[in-house]
């Protein structure tokens, strides 16, 4: 299976990319996936060009195909002014609005303060619901103080939230995957089977 990680971190190194990598690693421990990363920072000019011209160039088109052909997504954005970044939103705006239909998605975000954590629920989750994706129940937010933090008596730590979200995405990936042994039976074979059955019952 193909897991695609879309990360909208603007700096290098980036806490957004770090969270994305931790989520992808946790999913890969639970499901047999090939992971590919789409760094939106590297596509910023191409995305802007697509808005101006109405057409994605070859580089952006390849990224779009990578995302639409994925079996599942991990989508991570920094939070600015209480919502996802403009770069993050712009990338998903250039996708066809049916491109993610039925696709399992784990949403996550980073920010300087825990006060922005609800952006996952009032901004990211509705965005992917509009795109008809299947968003896992646990959204993962990492504030500055979460890095290296452990759970307390009231809340799970970042590590626990990552593991729970990875469990949910892996379960969806496994559930939606077509079994390898399942195949489409040609009509001729189905007809031959019916004839054999009729022959036996006629005897």
From TrEMBL:
- Which EC class is the enzyme in? oxidoreductase
InterPro entries linked to this entry: CE1759_FMN_reduct (IPR023932), Flavoprotein-like_sf (IPR029039), FMN_Rdtase-like_dom (IPR005025), NAD(P)H-dep_FMN_reductase (IPR051814)
Residues in NADPH-dependent FMN reductase-like domain copies: 1-147
Alphabetically sorted, this entry's keywords are: Flavoprotein, FMN, Oxidoreductase
Tell me where the signal peptide lies.
none
Organismal lineage: Bacteria, Bacillati, Actinomycetota, Actinomycetes, Streptosporangiales
Q: What is this protein called?
A: FMN reductase
The source organism is Nonomuraea purpurea
Determine if Flavoprotein is one of this entry's keywords: yes
Could you say which EC number(s) this protein's record lists? 1.5.1.-
Q: Which GO terms describe its molecular function?
A: oxidoreductase activity
